[in-house]
Structure formats: C-alpha cells, structure tokens
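Quick check before the chapter quiz. The format below is the same one you will see on the exam, so make sure you can read both the input and the output lines.
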Amino acid sequence: MQNIFDFDAMVKHRTRAARRLASVRPVLEDLAERLLDRLDDTTTRFARALDFGGRGALAPQLAARGMLVDSADFSPAMASLAGGRPILLPGPADFGLAPEAYDVILAPFSLHFLDDLPGALIQLRRALRPGGLLLASLPVLGTLHALRLALLEAEEQFTGRVSPRVSPFPDLRDCAGLLQRAGFTHPVADLEALQFLYANPLALLHDLRAAGETNALAGRSRTIPPRALFAAALATLPQENGRMAAQLHMAVLTGWAS
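Here is the expected output.
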C-alpha cells in the first residue's frame, strides 16, 4: 500500500511545534472543549483516561474531572508537555497500548495524518475496557477547500506544475461506518462547521505550523516554492469584512467498546 503521509515528517513537525504551541493554544483548547462537552453529557463515570495527541489542551481538563490521565503522542516533546503521564507511541502500525487499559480515550485532531485510519480506530478500541468510550475529532471533506484550490492554481501559474499542499480528508458520511468497522457500538459522527477569520492571511499558515499541521504528505514537493506563491494564493481566498475566511469542517466521532 502506498503511503499518503510521511510519518517521520509528521513527527518532526509536531516536535518543532511543541515550542510554538502558546500562539495557538486558545484554538486547541476550543477544539478540545468540544470533545469535553460530549464527555460531560454522559452519565458514565470514568477513572482512567488516555489523551491521544492532545497537545496540552486536554489532559489538565481530564485530571480536573478526577481522572488518572496518560498522554500519548508520536512526538516525545509533545507527549512530555501534554499534561498527563507521558507515553511515547512507537509508530502508526502498533501504538503499543495495553489492551483494555482505559475507560475513556479522547483524540482531538490527532488521527487525520495516519494512513490507516480504520486500523488506528481498531487499536484504540482494543485499548478500551468493555463499556469504554472513544471521543475523537478530525477534519473532513470541505476543510481548507478554498486554500487547496488557491495553492494549486498559484503553483501552476508560477511554476507550470502542481504538488499536494493540503491533506486529503475523509467524507463525514464514511466516519460512522469506520467506527462500526472498528468494532464500536452506537457509532455517531457529528459535523461542526467552524470559520476562522484572519486580518493577515499569512497568519493562517503560521497557525498551521505552530500547531504541527505543516504539510506532511508523502507526495509533497521537496523544492523551495517561489517566494510569492503563498501570498498570491492567499490573496484570492474569500473574505468577510476585510478578513480572510478559513473553513474547518470537523467530525466529532463517538463510539463505545463492547
């Protein structure tokens, strides 16, 4: 199977971003809060939690709810700053998580860079005790769509060729089915459409870099793009009241382990 993502590049991006998270922490905390709202809606009491890739926005909130929290990440730097007991995940094919170790697993925006999303969900389900809960979020089709098209058009104009610069995202309609295939019961996939406005369009790219979301596609170009490419692409994006609008279509996944 051909890899979509460059796993080593993704880890390097997350490690580099560990030093810059303060600038995007409000956004990360807002996204994590959307999972926590669903957690608080359940009547089940959870004692042992896994924070899967929470980047420091999740583990303290789980601990405040009285849970023992492990924080897992593929990046040692991210795992150490996340706020729970750090766990370094050895790789995407085998997370190395003990079976039936957790009552609840929360994975905020930490699964979308994995080639085998169904396999990742299976691994997380196996790490849950019977009756345990998975809450995860990931970008789906429609996210940064305008940016994707603008970059393709600008690169073709400047260089005569194109390379992928925005990750492919799953369709929301497939997400509940992925949970079901992984063995979860009562699978639910909800959509939340979010919009971010930027007075300086380049700030969007800076935020993506600070969050560790830099392009890690295996098929990305390794050559340095023309200096004016990104500015030209961003100048074509839609605006609202003089600010550039960036769209995030977020799927929130809920599934129970039987």
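If your answer matched, good. The mean pLDDT is 95.
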